[in-house]
Every structure is written in structure tokens, then in C-alpha cells.
Specification:
mainly alpha; 214 residues
Length: 214
């Protein structure tokens, strides 16, 4: 595909972007901004985004992404609860931290389990229901997102690495599906994810210093 064809597809896609997609995109950007700032609003605002994208994903033959957003919805409720937990002194229990070696192993196994499960499910669905599905790409975007969201509920720095992978995969995936504004949205999320990674690393390092002094 030439640059001119990509540009024309971009213009056409933006012209056909629906109002509901705009709402989902702006809610998603706001949610990631709140997560970067470690603000509890990440979850209620994120629920607006995920519920809309469940609908859009089915409409555009992206069953893997629909499953991701359903998972996001459930995990947002769980993460909301986890982030709000406080100890007897009314201090937040959960703090931003790095993954242990054991947690790294768990997240890699977590990713592989969901990638293989989603991939083979999509191969079947492509043959029988969703002929527009792209199994390997959809499964990768979905499984990295599953892993990132799981780690986000535990405030692990490494969640941002998985979000970065999700965003890189999602930019071309949504573009070829005609959801051009969503593709641009994932480009913005990629930039925010890189910024979020640096911010959470700073906070995690501060926690380490604080514990060593204490």
C-alpha cells in the first residue's frame, strides 16, 4: 500500500468515524492519563471506554478485542477495589512496585496461555463466523492487553511494557479494519504508555529508597 493510499484511507476513515467512537477514544485517553497519575478515576472513566468498545469490536469483526474489553470491564471493577483498599491507619495498601522474578514468570505464562487460547479460538471463528478476523495479530493485541491489565490492578511497573506492546500491535490492526480514529487513539496511548512507564519507574524507585531508609 502506497503512502497516498494510506493517506486516502485515513481521510476516509476519519470522515466515517461515529460519535460513539469519539466518546470511547476520549474516555480511553483520559483513563490512561489517570493511570499514569495513579488516580483512582482510571477505573470509572475506563469503564465508559471498555463498554463502548465491546460493541464496536463485534461490529467490526474483532472478537479478540471484544473479549479484551469485556475482561477490562471485569478487571476495572476488581482494580477499583484493589486501589481503594486501605489499612487501619487509612493509608493506601497497594503501592507501585517492580515485579519479582516469580511474577515475571507468571506474567509470561499468563501471556502465552491467553495468546494460544485466543489464537486457536480465532482460527475457528474466522472459518465459521468472523471471516474478517486476523488471528495472530488480534490474539497478540488481546493477550498483551490481558497481561497489562492484570499487572495494572497490582500496580506493577511492568504493566506498561505490555501496554506498549498492545498499542504497537493495535495501531495497524484497527487501521486495516477501518477504525482509523481508533488507530490514532492507540498511537496517542503508545505515547502515554511510554510516559507512564517512566513515571511509574520514578515512583517505584522512590518507594525502594523510602523502604531502605525506614
Amino acid at each position: 500500500m502506497s503512502f497516498s493510499e494510506i493517506y486516502q484511507q485515513f481521510i476516509s476513515g476519519m470522515q466515517h468515524t461515529g460519535f460513539i467512537e469519539y466518546i470511547a477514544v476520549f474516555a480511553g485517553i483520559a483513563s490512561v492519563w489517570f493511570s499514569k497519575k495513579e488516580n483512582i478515576l482510571v477505573y470509572p472513566v475506563g469503564l465508559v471506554n471498555t463498554i463502548i468498545y465491546i460493541y464496536l469490536s463485534f461490529q467490526y469483526h474483532l472478537p479478540g478485542e471484544a473479549s479484551v474489553n469485556f475482561y477490562y470491564t471485569i478487571m476495572s471493577l476488581y482494580g477499583w477495589y484493589m486501589w481503594m483498599r486501605k489499612d487501619q491507619q487509612h493509608k493506601t495498601i497497594l503501592h507501585i512496585s517492580y515485579s519479582s522474578q516469580q511474577m515475571w514468570l507468571y506474567q509470561i505464562l499468563f501471556f502465552l496461555f491467553f495468546y494460544l487460547s485466543i489464537y486457536f479460538a480465532l482460527v475457528y471463528l474466522k472459518q465459521n463466523f468472523f471471516d474478517g478476523a486476523i488471528p495472530w495479530a488480534d490474539a497478540f493485541a488481546s493477550s498483551t492487553a490481558f497481561t497489562g491489565m492484570w499487572l495494572m490492578t497490582r500496580k506493577k511497573v511492568e504493566s506498561w511494557y505490555w501496554w506498549i506492546a498492545t498499542n504497537i500491535a493495535s495501531i495497524p490492526l484497527y487501521f486495516v479494519k477501518g477504525l482509523v480514529f481508533t488507530s490514532v487513539y492507540y498511537l496517542v496511548l503508545l505515547i502515554l504508555a511510554i510516559s507512564g512507564l517512566m513515571e511509574w519507574k520514578r515512583k517505584a524507585n522512590k518507594q525502594i529508597v523510602h523502604k531502605s531508609i525506614a
